[in-house]
Each structure stands twice: as structure tokens, then as C-alpha cells.
Amino acid sequence: MSGLNKKILSFVIPLILLLIFLLELITQQYSPENAQNHGESNDLIKSVSKKSHRAPDNYKDYVKSINFAIVGFPKCSTTFLRNRLLHTQQFFYGNNRMELHHLRNNDVQELVKLFSNVTDPNVKKKGFKCPDVLYSNNALLNLKTYFPRADLIVVVRHPVLWFQSFYNYRVRKGYNMPSPTDLVGSCSTQDEGILNKLNTNETRYPAHKVCTDRANFHIALSRLGKTKLMNTSEIELLQNHSLPIHRSSNRVFIMELGQLSVENRTRAHQLVNDLESFLGLDVNAGDAHLPELKDHKPQHNIALNVVKSNLEDKLLDICLPAHDDLRSVLVEIGQKASRWIISYFLQSHQVYASDRNHLVSLLNLWEKDPCNSHREIK
Fold first, then answer.
1. In a 10 Å sphere around its CB, with 0-12 CB exposed, 13-18 middle and 19+ buried, how is residue 242 labelled?
2. pTM
3. What would the pLDDT profile of 331-340 be if each residue is shown by its tens digit?
4. Contact in structure between 78 and 72 (CB atoms under 8 Å)
5. Can you tell me the distance from the alpha carbon of 349 to that of 228, in angstroms, rounded to the nearest whole number?
6. What are phi and psi of 335, to 5 degrees?
């Protein structure tokens, strides 16, 4: 090697080492964990939780006991997924109950017992449905601690249509629901927390979990910690909330309700295939295909104590002019939610979707009031 080359190397190598050192220093300085130490006024960063429960001695048994969970949201076809699409002999749901709320109730040990003695050789995947998980701090903490490998399935829908569906569901079940206009804001304090801390009013009557605050699907999803939470635009979309965020390793498969339509058979077939792949079903190894996605109409079961002749007067038609202000609140929530899901949540390497272009096109519809184009069937 010539003397000139040696001089160049003697200069270049220290320079490279210096650049690597500076890059590491900058990364540490502006990491989410250290942002609050540099005067950042960011409640989101401060709310990133390092808390976890003490792992039990049989921790490995806990981790292996559950493979997946249908975790959100209410009135977003979670029952359809459990009973129709993910309901073959290779799926085991613990017992015959439709929903399992053990994570929310801190009954983790009991939950594991339900899945610990499965002897059926046909069972390939064990899971449960609980559409309230993303609203519950207990559930999120237990999920992160005990079931870090469980894959999560989430379905979202336009907040306006979600509100109407959930409200009418409660009416059909015999709940004494207040006027929809009284459900703008956060649900009463019987629930676990307020998603949007900018809500200045609380519902005056028992909301039975139906309120505009719970339409903030993006804030609920943000608690899984799948995004960096450092961008000013993201923080604004999330209202700089201060709810605990539990950065978990759980993978998430997200769908918009419209993706369960069968109008486009190619897309419907692809959705099923992508779900199979996400859940780790291997047809070549003997696993069965998921059933074909078929046209399905919502079944409105009415409680026995509900007088059917009075039902129509109590059901909500959210497209009526009397509910313009209510829709305005929900449309604004939908705009923030769709923008955050598209720009931030879907960018995570732990978030999966089928036909992302179609998903994004459906989420973009949240920018507008659906009542301007059609009326949702009650």
C-alpha cells in the first residue's frame, strides 16, 4: 500500500468512527424514552408505560396458551368473525361463551385454564373474542405481559355508522337509552377512561358504553404502541392523550368493515387468504382453508322484554336533520382516525392488512358524512 493511501485511510477511518458515534448519540437523545428529559411537552411520550406484571413460574405455558384474539371493536363484525369466518374445527375458543373478559378483569390464570387442556388433534389455533380490550388498561397490560405472541384482529368502521349500530343494538337488547344528543362526549365514569381528554362534557345519563368518545378508534389503537409518537402531526391527531401506552410485540391485522363485502369476489378471496397467512395456517401441512367469505346480513336479535310495537320509535336514524350536530362530531373524529391509521398505524412493520389500497380507499370515506350519500340500514 502506498504512503498516500495510508494517509487517506488514517484520515477516513477516524472520521467514520466519529460519525457513527454522533449518530448513536443523536438517536439516544431523541428516543421516545428520553424525550421527556429534554423538555418535550408531550403527554403521549410520558404515557409510554414500562410497567408489566411479574411473570409466573409457568410463563411459557401462558405464552403458548393463546394464539390470537379478536379485540375490536364493538359492532364491527367481531361476532361474524368468531362465528362464521374463524369457526372451523381447527379453532378453539375456550368455552361456549361468546366473549371472554378475563384480561380486563385480571383473571389471567382462569383464562389460561380454559385453553390448557385441549386434546382435540384438529385444533390448530386457540383464541378468544373481546371487543373491549383496546379500551381497557388492565387488558392491554395483561396482553403485553402474558400473551406477547398472540396475534390481534381488529375491525373498524365509519364512526357515524358505528354509533347508530351500537345505539340501536342497545335499544334492541332492552337498555333504557338516553337521547342520542345526550351521548356527545365521554361515557360516564363507570367506564375505564376517557380516550379524548379534550372532551369537556360527560354524558349526563348512563351511556352503556355508547358515546362519541368511544368512536376514537385511533386513540384506542395507539395504546398498542405501534407508532413512534414523535411527529407533531401524529400527536395532534391523537389529541396528545395521556392514557397509558403499552408497547407490545403483538402483531395486528386490521380491516375496515367494508372489506368483508363480497361484491368483489377477488378481494373477498384475497382477504381470506391473507387472514390464513397471518394466523399461520399452513394448508400444505394439513391445515384446512378458512371458509369462503359469503354475503351476510346483520341479524338483529331482540330481547324478550322488548315490546316490538314500540321499537321503531326508539331506534336511531342518525341521518335525520335533528342529529346533524351529533354527526358533525363523529365525522370530525372519523377524519382524525382515518388519517392516523393511514399515515402512521399502517406504516408499522407489526401491522398487517389485506389489499392496502382498498383499505385506504375505504378509510378515506371517513372524511365525509355518509348520510350525504346513503342511509345505513338500521
1. middle
2. 0.85
3. 999 999 999 9
4. yes
5. 12
6. -65, -45
The count of residues in the chain is 378
- Asked if the model's pLDDT at residue 12 lies above 70, the reply is no
C-alpha cell at 44: 403521549
d(CA 188, CA 208): 8
Chain segment 340-353, per-residue pLDDT in tens: 999 999 999 999 99
d(CA 279, CA 153): 10
Q: What's the number of CA atoms in the CB half-sphere (13 Å) around residue 14?
A: 5
Number of Cβ atoms within 10 Å of the Cβ of 288: 13
Residue 243 CB partners (closer than 8 Å, separation 6+):
47, 137, 193, 195, 219, 223
Q: How many CA atoms lie within 13 A of 182 on its CB side?
A: 10
Residues 124, 102: Cα–Cα separation, whole Å: 22
For residues 370, 203, 131, 79, the Cα torsion angle rounded to the nearest 10 degrees is -60
- Give the closest residue to 50 by CA, choosing from 238, 192, 225: 225
Each residue's pLDDT tens digit, 166-206: 999 999 999 999 999 999 998 865 545 677 766 657 776 78
Q: Indicate the burial class of 225 (C-beta count within 10 angstroms; 0-12, 13-18, 19 or more).
A: buried
What's the mean per-residue pLDDT of the chain? 85
Letter for the amino acid at 136?
Answer: S
